[in-house]
């Protein structure tokens, strides 16, 4: 088109949207972006996004528009795939106009220079570098721009530069004496800036003609007036230099038209403008690019090579350009994928940009990648990428300066404050708190960023609909307050330093600081009060546990008392959330310590309330709080005496936590008391609960080891639930008085039937006389706790009266309540009510006591777990077979009756009876065989109409109830059939004489394990020869002429390391050296293979031990591996149910055992560690180390003491009994000549096998040792211990052995000692015949066990494959 256009006057001007409509309906007009004589520019919307449309109105049809369109399409083809060029993508022509279309980019470089956050130096260098890259890309394709200016340089939100609006249609040369061409084609912004190269201005002429007194249109169609030519790269270099000058001078243009013409004539120099640029490399670059002579200018590529490492850092070339270019070229990644890519490449980015964490001012290159992150974070869709973006912003902030954090990172973080995902809002609070926490200096312009920007932006989060967000705010409010205060102090410090230099009065600035501090405190106070009053307790708890003490420091002592403490006290009014109350006592110490001793009168009633809390966890936390307050000296002496009276009885409490908390408080009090107070006031209170005198009462460990045994948990719970608590304590006091009067034999007075029944129940639960005094010591605590749990009602209700207690609703008496659950077990009372043939009256049914209601609603398993007040309940005693058959028959009758009564019309509903439990068949009805009797009996029962859906639900409940009853009955039968050993323990005077009953030598390898079935009908032996043999116990007492095994199982899988009976001896599991566990089903005394577990040896290691326990719902086979894995496998579902990993630092696992309560699991290691795991939470609860670090060879649990484990360790024939609760070694067995419990090992013999036997009133330990002896240890009467089976190599006249007990370092040690026996010499004794062969073992005894036949037998197995049976 060139110069033909300036002289044509438009004939008609239409709106730009009119031209868009004429061309195509694809483009929807949005707004106008400007209009000049040359182009009308608009923004339009398409299916692919926003576009820029430039409209050229056709006034002269003779213009060569087609040639220009073809040339522009060629430019688009050439520049396709370039990363920094944005040519016109489409050219459309109609009769009225020609349209040029390209992608819309919001900001040009001209706009970006004046937009916050302002460009920093590294960003300006990056844009200049990209501009040269764009020129290099288009020049290599022989494409030249022709009109480079800041308005045609587009900058994206992530600082990526795009060179747009290639002007091939504009004239190359302009007349220097006619500015109209320049104004028409190049001055579209009306700024009069001129970046056209000097060589493009040439001499030319212009003509005017006056027609009728008016100036005619200009005619510049004559080519002889203006020079023609092509664009050159040097022309674009000059224009780019001018753009870079404007970029580095904060928007100051180097030339306008007059200055450029003067520069051509040598009358103007732009060097004054260039002096504003501080960087010398950039100045030299621009000075060389805007030289007047085009031959002196270099190409874009040469400029980049010249300035590499100078104006442009090295990482621009080696990493940044190539990395960010991936996000600008096809395929274009969506924002979520960009975030994932940045997260993945973060370490690579920091490495290539040479990021240094200690020198944040040198890490400015990260800002260029940060802009990409921030641009993408505003358009994310998924919550996981939003959280990832927040985390990335936090990671970037660790390497950047404070001004960049406040200007660039914090605003983008706060953008997520209104996100619709609660997890994102919660993460925002945590991230921005961590980000602001690292601020070390703040610019003066950002002094009020917290009160004016950050806190207002987060203000809505205190009332956020999601409790998760409010809890996150509560967790971080203390840190935000501290950071805000630190920023305020930094500003105050800098102001004082400046004023000291000016030598002015600082009083004004101090007043300003006080006002700003007060304003900040009021802002935080409003938010804290809102959070402390939150309806969700999780928010309150989060605020207390995360910085309540720091908030005290922030507010000062007065406000800490008035605001924080006053609100925290109200938390104790919540009787339903024990976690909140426990958290209160956890965190009140810090508040009290800051407020000072003045808070003690306020805290006293709160602490007393905590000591009487219904939750033992809260009581324990209260005791810990008392200990801390005592150590800090915040409680006066008189108050300590009062608390001692309440705390000391806790030494007998059944909860181990409470006992430990009480010991901690008593030790803390002992440290504050003087000697006189300790001996006169403290020791008399404590001595009653100790089994020995303790001098250092301030040492918690000594006090714990000296405590008497606590009140059994079942006894404590039963007393607490009793409705005759007053009479019970009166009786206990009377019995205590009788014990004091009668020193020898006590004769108690007779009790009435109800009290006798209570004492029988307590005795069956384990209460002894020594426990009665401890229960009386806790009388006040028990009564208070009983009143609280009973709803502050101390009087017992009379029979027939309803129990109405505050906070409880009697569901039975409420008719409108619809039950939404079905009980699987029917109580016998309901069956009796229904046996009369009429439904029970709803209004006249008498109310039972609370205990009887609880007992009747519990199933047998729950009763066995929590206890029952009805000692005569049928569920507490095993059922006989006749009762079981009767119940099965009754169940069949009931189900048949239900089926008969379930017939009716399916459309209108059905008539069915009230409930299955209320149906009763008269005795002998089925025997008569008449259905009429059944229907006649059913007619007496009230019928109710039900919908078909409810009938289906009812049938489903009946089916589930039948299935549950079948399981319960079969379990009861199994328990009855498999418990002769438990019902017939050995006699109290059982002492095996060491007589050999059987000598079994079928195995060809070492005996590794002997296991006895639950019913003691047979036992199994596992050997290194790869076989398992089953033996019948009854045949070992001389009843059979030949002792042979009943069955031999050859696994052919290597040595068998471990063996265990499973599922009530119905299954047998064996672990082999090839890391396989074989499971066999035992039917009719024969074992058949049913399963094989293959354990990955590389991952888990070798299986060292197996054990089994049954929870009722699961039959778990637990095995331990040498690599520290403990795995539970359910034999019923054939899948792994849990997996634990022991700490490798504790050593390699060698043995394991499970407690009979199925609550915890213990393992022993090669380093002498005993690690106990809680199977409910699958966490390690304690670890006990052997003093010598000796290997644990065998581990069992004590059958009587609930928290004891017994371990046999390497050396000295040592067996130790450890208390898991305290970690103390309570007892030890020592059969070695070395000094007891000595650190120096003198005997290499060790116990390989051990077995604990419980008699009526005694505890016996059987041990098998590597010295080939089997020992009988009487734990209660050590002098009765002896060697049951000597070794075969022992001399016939060996020294006599005696056993005695010694107390060594708090441990009772039973020691084996030898005394020389005076016997006559061999010459004095005449020979009567050949020597009797030795009956003892000739090799190491590897295991020992007992079985019950007609008498109790001892089974031993040795390493030479011999099994011996003793009596």
UniProtKB/TrEMBL annotation:
Keywords: ATP-binding, Kinase, Nucleotide-binding, Repeat, Serine/threonine-protein kinase, Transferase, WD repeat. Pfam families: Pkinase, VPS15-like_hel, WD40. It is an enzyme of class 2 (transferase). Residues 849-859, 903-914 have a biased composition (Polar residues). Residues 863-881 have a biased composition (Low complexity). Residues 27-317 form the Protein kinase domain. InterPro entries: 2AA_helical, ARM-like, ARM-type_fold, HEAT_type_2, Kinase-like_dom_sf, Prot_kinase_dom, Ser/Thr_kinase_AS, Vps15-like. One of its GO terms (molecular function) is protein serine/threonine kinase activity. Its main location: cytoplasm. It is found in: Cytoplasmic vesicle, Autophagosome. WD repeats lie at residues 1000-1032, 1334-1367. One of its GO terms (biological process) is protein targeting to vacuole. The keyword NAD does not apply. HEAT repeats lie at residues 454-483. Residues 814-914 are annotated as: Disordered. The keyword Repeat applies. GO terms for cellular component: autophagosome; late endosome; nucleus-vacuole junction; phosphatidylinositol 3-kinase complex, class III, type I; phosphatidylinositol 3-kinase complex, class III, type II. Its EC number is 2.7.11.1. Residues 820-832 have a biased composition (Basic and acidic residues). This is non-specific serine/threonine protein kinase. It comes from Mytilus coruscus (Sea mussel).
């Amino acid at each position: 088109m060139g110069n033909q256009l300036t002289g044509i006057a438009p004939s008609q001007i239409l709106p730009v949207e009119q031209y868009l409509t004429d061309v195509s309906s694809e483009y929807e007009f949005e707004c106008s972006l400007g209009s000049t004589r040359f182009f009308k520019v608009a923004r339009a919307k398409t299916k692919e996004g926003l576009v820029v449309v430039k409209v050229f109105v056709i006034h002269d049809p003779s213009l060569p528009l087609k040639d220009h369109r073809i040339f522009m399409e060629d430019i688009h083809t050439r520049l396709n795939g370039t990363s920094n060029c944005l040519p016109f993508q489409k050219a459309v022509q109609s009769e009225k106009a020609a349209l040029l279309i390209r992608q819309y980019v919001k900001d040009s470089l001209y706009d970006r220079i004046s937009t916050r956050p302002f460009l920093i130096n590294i960003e300006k260098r990056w844009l200049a570098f990209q501009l040269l890259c764009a020129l290099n890309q288009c020049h290599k394709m022989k494409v030249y721009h022709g009109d480079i200016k800041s308005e045609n340089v587009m900058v994206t939100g992530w600082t990526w530069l795009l060179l747009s609006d290639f002007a091939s249609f504009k004239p190359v040369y302009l007349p220097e004496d006619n500015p109209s061409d320049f104004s028409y084609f190049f001055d579209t912004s009306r700024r009069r800036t001129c970046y056209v190269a000097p060589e493009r201005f040439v001499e030319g002429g212009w003509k005017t003609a006056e027609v009728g007194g008016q100036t005619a249109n200009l005619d510049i169609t004559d080519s002889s007036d203006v020079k023609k030519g092509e664009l050159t790269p040097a022309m674009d270099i000059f224009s780019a230099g001018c753009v870079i000058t404007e970029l580095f001078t904060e928007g100051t243009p180097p030339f306008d038209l007059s200055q450029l013409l003067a520069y051509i004539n040598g009358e103007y120099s732009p060097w004054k403008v260039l002096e504003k640029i501080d960087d010398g490399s950039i100045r030299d670059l621009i000075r060389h690019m805007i030289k007047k002579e085009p031959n002196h200018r270099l190409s874009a590529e040469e400029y980049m090579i010249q300035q590499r490492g100078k104006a442009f850092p090295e990482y621009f070339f080696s990493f940044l350009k190539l990395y960010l270019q991936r996000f600008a070229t096809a395929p274009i990644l969506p924002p979520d994928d960009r975030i994932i890519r940045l997260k993945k490449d973060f370490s690579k980015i920091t490495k290539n940009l040479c990021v240094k964490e200690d020198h944040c001012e040198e890490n400015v290159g990260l800002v260029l990648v940060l802009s990409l992150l921030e641009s993408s974070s505003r358009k994310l869709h998924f919550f996981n990428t939003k959280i990832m973006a927040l985390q990335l912003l936090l990671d970037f902030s660790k390497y950047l300066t404070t001004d960049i954090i406040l200007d660039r990172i914090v605003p983008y973080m706060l953008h997520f404050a209104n996100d619709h995902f609660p997890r994102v809002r919660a993460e925002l609070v945590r991230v921005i708190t961590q980000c602001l926490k690292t601020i070390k200096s703040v610019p003066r312009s950002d002094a009020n960023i917290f009160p004016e920007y950050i806190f207002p932006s987060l203000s809505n989060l205190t009332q956020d609909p999601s409790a998760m967000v409010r809890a996150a705010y509560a967790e971080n409010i203390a840190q935000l307050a501290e950071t805000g205060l630190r920023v305020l102090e930094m500003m105050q410090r800098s102001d004082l330093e400046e004023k000291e230099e000016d030598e002015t009065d600082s009083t004004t600035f101090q007043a300003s600081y006080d006002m700003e501090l007060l304003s900040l405190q009021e802002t935080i106070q409003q938010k804290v009060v809102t959070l402390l009053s939150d309806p969700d307790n999780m928010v309150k708890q989060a605020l207390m546990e995360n910085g309540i003490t720091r908030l005290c420091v922030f507010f000062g002592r007065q406000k800490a008392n008035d605001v924080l403490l006053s609100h925290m006290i109200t938390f104790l009014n919540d009787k339903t959330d024990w976690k909140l109350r426990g958290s209160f006592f956890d965190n009140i110490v810090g508040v009290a310590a800051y407020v000072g001793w003045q808070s003690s009168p306020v805290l006293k009633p709160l602490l007393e309330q905590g000591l009487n809390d219904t939750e033992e966890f809260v009581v324990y936390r209260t005791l810990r709080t008392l200990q801390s307050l005592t150590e800090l000296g915040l409680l006066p002496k008189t108050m300590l005496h009062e608390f001692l009276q309440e705390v000391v009885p806790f030494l007998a409490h059944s909860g181990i936590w409470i006992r430990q908390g009480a010991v901690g408080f008593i030790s803390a009090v002992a440290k504050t008391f003087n000697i006189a107070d300790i001996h006169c006031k403290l020791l008399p209170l404590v001595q009653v609960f100790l089994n020995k005198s303790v001098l250092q009462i301030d040492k918690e460990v000594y006090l714990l080891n000296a405590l008497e045994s606590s009140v059994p948990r079942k006894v404590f719970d039963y007393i607490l639930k009793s409705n005759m608590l007053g009479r019970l304590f009166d009786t206990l006091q009377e019995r205590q008085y009788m014990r004091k009067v009668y020193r020898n034999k006590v004769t108690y007075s007779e009790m009435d039937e109800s009290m006798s029944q209570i004492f029988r129940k307590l005795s069956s639960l384990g209460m002894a006389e020594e426990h009665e005094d401890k229960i009386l010591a806790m009388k006040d605590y028990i009564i208070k706790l009983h009143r609280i749990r009973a709803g502050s009602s101390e009087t017992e209700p009379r029979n027939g009266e309803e129990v109405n207690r505050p906070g409880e609703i009697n569901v039975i008496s409420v008719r409108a309540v619809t039950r939404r659950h079905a009980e699987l077990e029917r109580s016998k009372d309901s069956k009796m009510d229904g046996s009369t043939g009429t439904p029970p009256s709803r209004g006249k049914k008498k109310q039972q006591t609370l205990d009887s209601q609880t007992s009747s609603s519990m199933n047998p398993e729950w009763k066995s777990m929590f206890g029952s007040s009805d000692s005569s309940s049928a569920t507490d005693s095993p059922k006989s077979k006749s009762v079981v058959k009767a119940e099965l028959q009754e169940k069949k009758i009931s189900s048949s009756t239900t089926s008969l009564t379930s017939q009716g019309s399916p459309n209108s509903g059905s008539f069915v009876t009230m409930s299955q439990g209320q149906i009763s068949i008269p005795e002998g009805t089925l025997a008569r065989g008449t259905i009429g009797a059944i229907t006649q009996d059913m007619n007496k029962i009230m019928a109710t109409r039900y919908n078909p859906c409810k009938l289906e639900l009812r049938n489903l409940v009946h089916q589930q109830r039948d299935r549950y009853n079948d399981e319960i009955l079969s379990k009861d039968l199994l328990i009855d059939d498999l418990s002769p050993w438990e019902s017939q323990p050995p006699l109290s005077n059982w002492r095996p004489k060491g007589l050999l009953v059987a000598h079994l030598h079928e195995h060809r390898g070492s005996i590794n394990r002997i296991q006895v079935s639950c019913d003691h009908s047979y036992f199994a032996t596992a050997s290194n020869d790869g076989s398992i043999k089953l033996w019948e116990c009854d045949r070992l007492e001389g009843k059979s002429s030949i002792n042979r095994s009943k069955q031999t199982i050859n696994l052919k899988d290597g040595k068998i390391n471990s063996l265990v009976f499973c599922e009530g001896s119905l299954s047998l599991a064996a672990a082999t050296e090839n890391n396989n566990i074989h499971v066999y089903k035992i039917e009719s005394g024969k074992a058949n293979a049913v399963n094989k577990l293959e354990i990955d040896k590389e991952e888990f290691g070798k299986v060292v031990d197996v054990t089994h326990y049954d929870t009722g719902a699961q039959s778990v086979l637990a095995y331990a591996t040498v690599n520290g894995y403990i795995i539970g496998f359910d034999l019923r579902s054939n899948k792994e149910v849990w997996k634990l990993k022991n700490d490798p630092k504790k050593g390699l696992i060698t043995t394991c055992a499970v407690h009979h309560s199925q609550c915890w699991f213990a393992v022993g290691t090669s380093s002498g560690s005993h690690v106990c795991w809680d199977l409910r939470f699958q966490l390690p609860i304690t670890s006990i180390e052997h003093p010598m670090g000796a290997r644990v060879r065998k581990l069992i649990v004590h059958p009587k003491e609930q928290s004891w484990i017994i371990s046999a360790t390497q050396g000295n024939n040592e067996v130790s009994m450890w208390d898991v609760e305290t970690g103390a070694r309570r007892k030890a067995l020592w059969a070695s000549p070395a000094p007891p419990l000595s650190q120096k090992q003198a005997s290499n013999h060790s116990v390989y096998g051990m077995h604990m036997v419980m008699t009526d009133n005694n505890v016996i330990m059987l041990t098998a040792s590597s010295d080939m002896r089997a020992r009988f240890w009487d734990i209660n009467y050590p002098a009765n211990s002896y060697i049951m089976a000597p070794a075969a190599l022992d001399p016939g006249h060996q020294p006599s052995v005696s056993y005695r007990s010694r107390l060594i370092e708090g441990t009772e040690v039973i020691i084996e000692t030898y005394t020389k026996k005076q016997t006559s010499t061999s010459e004095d004794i005449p020979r009567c015949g050949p020597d009797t062969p030795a009956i003892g073992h000739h090799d190491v005894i590897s295991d020992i066990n007992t079985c019950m036949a007609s008498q109790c037998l001892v089974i031993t197995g040795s390493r030479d494959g011999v099994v011996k049976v003793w009596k």
